[in-house]
Description:
Blueprint: H1 2-20, E1 34-41, E2 46-53, E3 57-62, E4 69-73, H2 76-88, E5 97-98, E6 102-109, E7 114-120, H3 128-142
Amino acid sequence: MKKLTQFFLLLSLALSCSFCSNKNYTPADYPKGQIIFGNGGGMAGSVTEYTLLENGALFTKKGMNAENTALKKIESKVVKQLFNNIEFLNLNEVQLNQPGNRYYFMEFKGKNKDHKIVWGGAPMGPPKEIKNFYNILNHLLKE
Length: 143
């Protein structure tokens, strides 16, 4: 009888823990904010895309029909600062769609608005704020 009681206790503990676990989202089903950035073009026309979810999960996708692959988790205070900077720098209001043979992009997805910025190797390049923010995002990949 004692073993049966222990079994049910362990079973209920396992079930309760499974209900408490966080859902593993992908960029396709994540309901909150996302920052998507990357580059593409060139001779092969390949595209490399990274997606940072508001929960800190970072994904990559290489190629147009590729699946998202989880890379790592970014610290929550860093993610919060990045999303705050989008608002502070008004990046979700910048109108820039000037791709070149080789191009770079950032896309911001949120509850009410999706916004994409695309630029190429034009002589002037993007505004400083865009280039700096893009460089910060790329730095996350190296940490």
